[in-house]
Structure formats: structure tokens, C-alpha cells
Amino acid sequence: MKIITFNQKKTSTIGLEFDELIPDEIFQWEEKDFQKYEIPIGNSRFPLKDYFDVDVVGSAESPSDVKIILNGDLTRIKYIGTKMSTGEIVANSSVDLHCGSEMSGGEITVNGNAESYAGREMTGGILTIKGNTREFCGASYIGDWRGMSGGTIMIHGSAGKQLGECLTGGEIYVKGNCDILAGIHMTKGFIQIDGDVTRWPGGQMQGGNIIINGKLSRLLEGFVDPEIITNPEIEGKQITGKYIKYVGDIARNGKGNLYLDADKNRNFL
User: Do 92 and 52 touch, CB atoms closer than 8 A?
Assistant: First the structure.
């Protein structure tokens, strides 16, 4: 196992882009390689050593043998773990945009909050956010209609609007609350929100499953055929509790399933 530790020396007012510093690319690097490396900042590059001290311990025969640890104030560090396929990254701070975007494997843990587009267009791997995340987590990117298609996102805090937009697969779990339009345009996949949801989950969804264990403030009219289900089995997962199950969004001839905790959402009955 090779452990590569980045200890921050100073911050940047412009976001540093870390997409090149993934296990796939740097598993053979030693300290001298990091000393020479220049990191993208806007339209320019600057020496990484101006911003981080890098310690390398151990060796790796493949990228899967690499663990990257990022220490410091990472709120202006973008693209952490972008396109990684294996290995592990631990960010010991809140992070900037696009953390875990397009990742296909491996594991990322954020010990803080994550900015917008965390886990966008993921195809595999595990992204764990110990704090909150903002809009478009697990979503598509501007101009595309395909969001996350595989892997797992675990959010221990709350999520912003349009969680899992255009979801075509994979699983998203939110332990806290969620803003509007979770699962909008989704066609496949699984979203579970344990807290409250402001309004309109599943807008224009055509397939997949959304479970809300908290209270929903407003339901779209396109969800129909409510029925009470106890302990449903959803995509091979045994869910405990009593739920109101809807089908929708009929505005798109959708066949998705929306499950609301029956006790907390009696007003919809």
C-alpha cells in the first residue's frame, strides 16, 4: 500500500484543479515527481509545492494500492477524484465543485461538505460525504441528459436541489433533508432520503425508485394510483415500514415509483 499525503501550506483564491492527481495517474510517483508537478489554476499552471507538502510512504504495484489523504482547507480544491477508477481518496475538509465526478470505481470520503455537482455522471465507486452537499449531486452536466449511471453516493447531511437529476442507475442515500426536484428526469436507479423534502420529487421521472422517510411538503399531480404497502422490497432491498406508493410521473407516461412514509405523510391519504 502506498499512502500519499497532501498537507496544505497555503490556499488559493482561484480553485486548484485536482483531476490529474488520482490513483490511476500517480500510483508510481515519488516525492520528487510532486516537486516538479505544476497544478492547473484557471488558465495557468503553478508549482504544486507552493500549495502542498507531499509525503509518500510505501509502494504500489497498481493504482488500487494507493490511498490519497488531503489535509487542510480544501474549499477551493475542485475535481477531487474526477475520473478515478480505483484506489482511495480521503479529503479531511469541505471541498469545492465536481468532487467524484465521472468516477468509475474506488472510494472517496469527504470529511466535510461538498459543493455542487458532487458525483455527477458517476458510473461506479463509492462517494461518501460526511456533511452536506449542494445542488446537482449525482446529476448530469450542462448540455447532457445522462446523470449518474452506477456506483453509490452516501450523504450524511442534507442535499440541495435536483439531487440525482437524469439518474440512469446507481444508488443515492441522504440521511438528512433534501431540496426540490430530487430525481427529476430519472429513468433508473434508487434514491432514499431519510429526512424531509421540500417539494416535487420525481418530476418527469420515467423509471426508478424514490423513497422518502421524512415529510414531503408538496407532491406533484403526476403521481397517481396511491396504495399502502408494508415492508416493500425495492430493487432487492427489504425496506421496513408502511409507505404510500405512487406511480409517475404520468406527465411523461412515467412508470417510476415514489414511496412516502405513511405515518409522516397522512395528509396525502
Answer: no
Using a cut of 0.90, tell me whether the model's pTM lies above it: yes
C-alpha cell at 150: 452506477
189: amino acid identity, one letter: G
> So what's the pLDDT on residue 145?
84
For 230-235, the CB contacts below 8 A with 24+ separation are: 232/259, 234/190, 234/209, 234/259, 235/190, 235/209
Torsion of CA 74, 165, 103, 92, to 10 degrees: 20
SS (H, E, C) 217-253: CCCCCCCEEEEEEECCEECCEECCCEEEEEEECHHHC
Task: Look up residue 44 and give its three cell numbers.
Answer: 495557468
Task: State phi, psi for 34 to the nearest 5 degrees.
Answer: -70, -30
* Per-residue model confidence as pLDDT tens digits over 171-193: 999 999 999 999 999 999 999 99
Q: Which long-range contacts (CB under 8 A, 24 or more apart) does 39-46 make?
A: 40/16, 41/12, 41/14, 41/15, 41/16, 41/17, 42/14, 42/15
Question: Taking 90 as the threshold, does the pLDDT of residue 33 lie above it?
Answer: yes
Predicted pLDDT at 57: 97
| Cα 179 from chain centre | 15
Of 230, 226, 222, 229, the C-alpha closest to 267 is 226
Q: Domain locations in the chain?
A: 1-93, 113-269
